[in-house]
Amino acid sequence: MASLQDQFLKAGLVNKNKAKQVHQDKVKQKKVERRTGTESVDEARLAALEVQKKNAERARELNAQRDAAAAQKAVFAQIVQMVQTNRQSKGNGDIAYHYTHGTKIDKIYVSEEVQKHLIAGRLMIVCVDGKRELLPRVIAEKIEERDASLVVRVKKTSNEIDADDPYAAYQIPDDFTW
């Protein structure tokens, strides 16, 4: 394929002398740039480099988002696996154990023995994918490290009695069932 210069010559748009003069000017410019150490500013090349930098930055951001999503998915898979391998039986009881998860009050039916374990804090409730499972405290704390919103925290009541409390003599039992 012929060069653009040859095509212009054949079309008659430029003459030989003009083409030769342009070629000599380019060679002289390159020699001057080599001697002085300066380069001519090429706006198109600078714009292309700028676009390339922006694309690389955007690709890094997208990769970081993708990596964060994959890490979150892996953590959730670990939680599901811990729940499936360590869940405890609720028993065949008809005792309703009420608890609060977030702002919602919910209940779960358990046996009397399981209720005692829940009150003592040896068992905890974990809500995963809309299912409520009972887990040992150690496993529930590991899950809570990964995602605290899944574990139901039972609030411990303090047994300290205020000296100025007029109702100090009337204690409410902690095993009160609704």
UniProtKB/TrEMBL annotation:
It holds the Pfam family DUF2058. Residues 19-39 are annotated as: Disordered. InterPro entries: DUF2058. This is DUF2058 domain-containing protein. It comes from Undibacterium nitidum.
